[in-house]
Amino acid sequence: MQSYEEFHNRNVTSLPTPVALFQFISLGLMLAVAGAGNCLVIYGFGRFLRLRRRSPHTFMFGFVSMDLARILLCFPIAFVTVVHSLEFKLGSAVCQGMAFFNVFILVGNSLNVCGMAFDRYFDSKYRAAYRRNCRGTFAVAIILIVNSLALTFAFPAFFSGKTRKPIVQVQCMFPHYLYVEEIEIMTILISVTTAFCMTNVIYAKLFLLLRGRRKMRPVIYEPAVSENWGFYDPRVGVSVRNRWIADSLSDAPVAVVSRSIFQSHPLPTNYEIALWRSKKQKDNEKLTKLCFAIHVLYSVMWLPYVVSLYYLALANGKPSIPTWLEITITWLTYLQPTITPFVFSSLSGLSRRKFRVRNGKRFSSTLSSSSA
Predict the structure, then answer these.
(1) What is d(CA 318, CA 323) in angstroms, rounded to the nearest whole number?
(2) Run of H or E residues at 358
(3) Following DSSP, what letter does each residue of 93-121 receive, concatenated?
(4) How many other β-carbons are positioned within 10 Å of the β-carbon of residue 148?
(5) TM segments (predicted)?
(6) For residue 323, what are the contacts with CB-CB under 8 A and spacing of at least 6?
(7) pLDDT at 272
(8) Which of 89, 148, 251, 311 has the fewest Cβ atoms surrounding its Cβ within 10 A?
(9) To the nearest 10°, the Cα dihedral for 120, 115, 117, 279?
(10) Surface-to-core class of residue 303, CB atoms within 10 Å of its CB (0-12 exposed, 13-18 middle, 19+ buried)
(11) pLDDT value, residue 255
């Protein structure tokens, strides 16, 4: 494991100007795009969704809010250190705070993604109980528990009273071995790994459940309908009688009275009920695909970072990670909140709606139609 002096000398002398220029341009673009994109997604959530009625939307709102907090708190500091990599040295308190927020958001968003998976599984398997109990208030309580767990894991690792050395370079988040003992970083990594494994197991069970239901889904057809009767409608007698009276007596007073008495509100037919259930199931599958896409994106961008931390925690004198690989891994974690808004807008229907109002109501194909 490298000492602080070796890490300091390597970072000061080994980064040429093209690499620093690439870091400056790429991080500046990510800072602008990620900040604007996440703000627009939060605006879309607030305009088109009733967060109190759907728990997955509340989990997504918490996920995007954490990403936005990381963009506002951590990206500017990293951007300044790229511009002034030799002159500007972060103090111990600033670097500790940045590392704490990165670990806090890493653990919190991992648990948020796991919460989305559990919510989708519970909704698909226990629909009635889910609609009764799992509203937005329930999801808010779960998010508070998630943030408490993330704070429990992240705070002792960085604010345990030990003397920390400042880091000169762009990633205060990456070399955690300069801040924490091996037992502390292993606790954080085990919590993230557990959430990741639980999420994969839940999605595997969910996809098996949806596959079984799709096989059992009956063929929807419209039964034969006659002009005078229908064997599928329980109101056949009333309809036939009203039609006979109207045809026989025309505009006589008794016909008007009969129609006003016996004409009831039209009830949905079996075909309409089956079509409505099929539409609800398709909307549920679309929402599940959105949650799964968030999980895949988050895992792809953060898994190399977690693996590298495992390597650093268990290295014990082995060769360290090369500088180019270290920068690539760190920049993947910076890229994740930049891509997330595009995933939300493309799979949730916000980009197709373009913030329009349809039929006088707030509408979004995946988000609002599944909120009933």
Answers:
(1) 15
(2) strand 357-358
(3) HHHHHHHHHHHHHHHHHHHHHHHHHHHHH
(4) 11
(5) 20-46, 58-79, 99-118, 138-159, 185-208, 287-311, 331-351
(6) 10, 11, 14, 15
(7) 60
(8) 251
(9) 20
(10) middle
(11) 52
- For 177-234, the DSSP string reads GGTS-HHHHHHHHHHHHHHHHHHHHHHHHHHHHHHHHHHHPPPP-PPP--SS--TT-T
What gap in Å lies between CA 263 and CA 333, rounded to an integer? 64
* Per-residue confidence (pLDDT) for residue 369, from 0 to 100: 44
For residues 191 and 110, give the distance between their C-alpha atoms in angstroms, rounded to a whole number: 9
CB 70 within 8 A of CB 100: no
Residue-level pLDDT at 297: 92
SS3 at position 267: coil
What pLDDT shows up at residue 360?
A: 47
Q: What pLDDT score does 298 carry?
A: 92
Alpha helices for 126-181 (secondary structure H): 127-133, 136-158
Structure tokens at 4: 């602080």
Q: Which residue has the tokens 């949730």?
A: 348
Question: Residue written as tokens 């919590």?
Answer: 191
Q: What is the pLDDT of residue 296?
A: 92
Q: What is the mean pLDDT of each run of 10 residues along the chain (372 residues)?
A: 46 58 82 88 72 68 87 79 56 69 85 87 78 70 82 69 47 46 67 89 87 59 48 53 57 55 55 63 79 91 84 68 78 88 78 48 45 42
Tell me the two tokens of residue 229: 């009767």
In the chain, what is the straight-line distance between the N-terminal and C-terminal CA atoms, in Å?
A: 55
CA 70 to chain centre: 15
What are 330's two structure tokens? 């760190």
CA distance 281 to 370: 9
